[in-house]
Write a structure and sequence with these properties.
By secondary structure, the chain is of the alpha+beta class. It has five helices and 15 strands. The strands form two sheets. Strands 1, 3, 4, 6, 11, 12, 13 and 15 form an eight-stranded antiparallel β-sheet that branches. It starts with a helix and ends with a helix.
Length: 348
């Protein structure tokens, strides 16, 4: 009887674990590029698409999860594989950023070309004590990029922003909250011959980024609101761990960049520079074929040692209930892998 009850509990916890893992895996679907900044090379694409960024003066720093890329106001990361890329009607981007200086000027954060050559961008302003965030996309019906203006992203602290476009609706979440913007875009995002750029703003105006970037994800699909909030929650957990001293920068390698242990890679999504049903400004250039990235990536924070639980000799305790309560407690405390490991050890 007890064996049947234990098997039933194991099945219940296993189903919960499987559903949770499935929900988290959704945010890795449809990724064009993922810059976690946790590889041996700071600009390495952590997806399997191998669209690495060229690093010009950026340095590693403590991030939301593992490492971040630090920009000095004169540094940048560029990805030539996205020149002439047709962003189309389905596009999303998600990342964490922290502004650390240049309060009296505007600055580009991420875009597909230095202003005014870009057709989607994120930039910071001098308004709101340097906390003003602007973003938008340029479509053939409305090339203007001023879709979302003057949003408050408190400076000198980590902020998360996610933007998703489906050909008609442009949705933006800032720090887990949906933002209000104007709705004039329709149709595909205009293509340009410029690369993807992190850290550079308007040409000739010194509008380059002072601060840090982390967990930069680009998608060839639309993210729904739940997925954008999930990406914010994932990073928020990393911030909480770092605040308690649970995460530190790893030892450095020969080239003086931190070396991280391996973690699961993000599946590849083919990057196609052209599509017959989407107009383009210039002839497309097809990027290099997708290849699997083998560089080491940052793991999640390791849980503390697992300790056995017990009951007071003066109190009644059902072993089955104790085991279930233990698994529930570990699960809700974030130690899901410990639960899965125990389930495997208890298999008949």
């Amino acid at each position: 009887m007890k064996k049947t009850r234990i098997l039933t509990m194991m099945l219940m916890v296993g189903l919960v674990a499987a559903s949770s893992i499935s929900a988290q895996a959704d945010v890795n679907e449809g990724i064009l590029a993922y810059y976690s900044f946790d590889g041996i090379s700071l600009g390495a694409d952590s997806s399997a698409n191998n669209v690495d960024a060229q690093n010009s003066g950026c340095s590693p720093a403590q991030g939301v999860i593992g490492r971040a890329a630090q920009f000095s106001g004169k540094s940048s990361l560029t990805v030539d594989a996205f020149r002439n890329y047709r962003w189309g009607n389905d596009f999303s981007v998600s990342f964490w950023f922290k502004r650390t200086g240049g309060w009296g000027r505007y600055m580009g954060v991420i875009n597909n070309g230095q202003h005014p050559d870009c057709t989607w961008e994120f930039r910071l302003g001098r308004e709101k004590a340097g906390g003003a965030l602007y973003c938008g996309v340029g479509s053939y019906t409305d090339p203007s990029l001023s879709d979302f203006r003057n949003m408050l992203a408190p400076p000198e602290q980590w902020n998360h922003v996610a933007m998703s476009y489906d050909g008609t609706n442009l949705t933006v979440f800032l720090n887990g909250a949906k933002q209000e913007g104007r709705k004039k875009d329709e149709g595909p995002i205009i293509s340009t011959s410029s690369p993807l750029i992190m850290g550079l703003g308007r040409k000739g105006f010194g509008e380059d980024f002072d601060g840090l970037l982390d967990e930069v994800r680009l998608y060839g699909r639309t993210l729904n609101e739940e997925e954008m909030q999930e990406l914010y929650a994932m990073g928020s957990k990393g911030i909480a761990v770092a605040a308690t001293g649970g995460r530190a920068i790893a030892p450095t390698s020969i080239d003086n960049e931190p070396v991280m242990a391996p973690r699961a890679s993000v599946p590849a999504v083919p990057i196609l520079a052209s599509s017959p049903d989407i107009p383009n400004v210039e002839e497309p250039v097809t990027p290099a074929p997708a290849q699997v990235i083998t560089q080491p990536l940052a793991p999640k924070a390791a849980p503390g040692p697992l300790t056995e639980t017990g009951s007071s000799p003066d109190s009644f305790s059902d072993p089955c209930c104790d085991l279930l309560n233990r698994w529930i407690s570990l699960w809700h405390s974030g130690r899901k892998q410990d639960v899965i490991n125990e389930l495997n050890r208890h298999k008949p």
